[in-house]
Amino acid sequence: MDLQMLLGGIFIALANGLDDEGRARALDMIAHFSERETFSPTERAVFHTICQMADDVFTPAAQPKSGRLHLRLVN
Question: Considering the domain boundaries, does residue 46 fall inside one?
Fold first, then answer.
């Protein structure tokens, strides 16, 4: 689980540098990898965790609202 969080954090840090279209393409690719049978179940679980983390960070619900400080705790 720790490795999944590390890789998810690295992906999120890299995705912050992308525009919305580039980020969507990268997430689509990782979502595609999470469903491919050619990867092991562990590898698919890592890709799935990365997608979940990215959804938590980049969805509109996770964005700050009207200048208020918005903190989100991720376990």
Answer: yes
Residue 11 corresponds to which amino acid? F
Task: State how many domains the chain has.
Answer: 1
- Structural domain that includes position 7: 2-57
pLDDT score at 37 = 92
d(CA 26, CA 34): 12
Q: How many other C-beta atoms are found inside a 10 Å radius of the C-beta of residue 50? A: 25
**Alpha-carbon distance 69 to 72, whole Å?**
10
Residue 11, burial from CB neighbour count under 10 angstroms (0-12, 13-18, 19+): buried
pLDDT, tens digit, 9 for 90 and up, residues 2-53: 788 888 888 888 888 888 888 889 888 889 988 999 999 988 988 888 888 8
